Amino acid sequence: MKKIILSAAFLAFAGLTAANATEVKEPLAITVKQDSTTKVPVELADLPEAVKATLQTEPVKQWTPTAAFLVTNADKTSYYHIDIKKGDETAAVKLDKDGKPIKS
Q: Does the keyword Signal apply (predicted)?
């Protein structure tokens, strides 16, 4: 009797395994959103004059520029991202080519 119950249990398990093995699942769709923004380093001396002038106005002139980047978005708009430092504090400003602040 034990052999019959074990055989039945084995056949039931094998049947479930076979059913799961032949089950077809839908393929998983993977979507990747690429960030088309480019960030190119720019020498501080090579910044446009309007941007340099804005950096010399209040309250920004109290900060020291440490690095600058030209950021170009996917829609071809661009701005200058300038890292600034005052003592232990760090921040960044975003200015267009005319030296006007960009709102994030």
A: yes
Within a domain: 63:
yes
With the C-alpha atoms ordered 59, 63, 64, 67, is the resulting torsion angle positive or negative?
Answer: negative
Each residue of 49-83: pLDDT tens digit? 999 999 999 888 899 999 999 999 888 899 999 99
Range of the domain at 54: 38-95
DSSP state of 29: P
- Which CATH number do you get for residue 68? 3.10.450
Domain count, the chain: 1
DSSP single-letter state for residue 77: -
Q: Which residues contact 101 (CB under 8 A, 6 or more apart)?
A: 54, 93, 94, 95
